[in-house]
Structure to design on (234 residues):
């Protein structure tokens, strides 16, 4: 079984929707990066039991993202934030056309705002 | 029964997590702004049945927000976007200290970026 980096990210978003047992298994396996056997010892269930819990949790986390797409939307927020930062840095570091850069910032801010709505 | 404006907003975020019947009832009652009786006619269930569906949906939507807080986070994104827009407009409309304004934009963009992480 391979660990999937995306699961940690989706877990940050939707982890609270998992059952307590699922939450614990994914936390130990992904966030604390333990092995199935180590999680098995801690939780007092079989290694196969842990594997099943984790697999089911992975499927549910993907399903939440499929339905809600909130992780993807927040990623877009992050991209916009980075672009705004870059444009503002260029205003800071040069005497070139800050009006044009400010206009670009406004355009991105407006898209961000729509994003929220 | 009073209609709650917040429900429409939460429905935009978490509506896909409701059952099909709940989804339909909330859509008709909140998004299309029909009365309980009108929804009852359309869905072919009693008025009390609609009321129960809507009440249960409202509770679930609040629970999702309680657990995930994603609506609140997106609201913060919207506030940041508006502030960035205002600052950039000031760069556009005046010859006053655009460096200071750009620095403020960077600060907000950084917080937005953390928001995403």
């Amino acid at each position: 079984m391979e660990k999937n980096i995306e699961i940690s990210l989706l877990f940050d978003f939707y982890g609270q929707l998992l059952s307590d047992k699922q939450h614990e298994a994914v936390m130990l396996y992904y966030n604390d990066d333990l092995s199935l056997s180590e999680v098995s010892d801690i939780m007092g269930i079989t290694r196969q039991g842990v594997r099943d819990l984790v697999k089911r949790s992975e499927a549910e986390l993907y399903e939440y993202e499929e339905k809600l797409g909130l992780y993807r939307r927040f990623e877009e927020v992050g991209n916009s934030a980075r672009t705004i930062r870059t444009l503002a840095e260029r205003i800071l570091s040069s005497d070139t056309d800050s009006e044009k850069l400010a206009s670009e910032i406004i355009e991105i801010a407006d898209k961000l705002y729509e994003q929220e709505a």
User: Anything to note?
Assistant: Chain A touches chain B through 35 residues (CB under 8 Å). The mean pLDDT of chain A is 87. Residues 71-116 of chain A form one domain. Chain A has six helices and no strands.
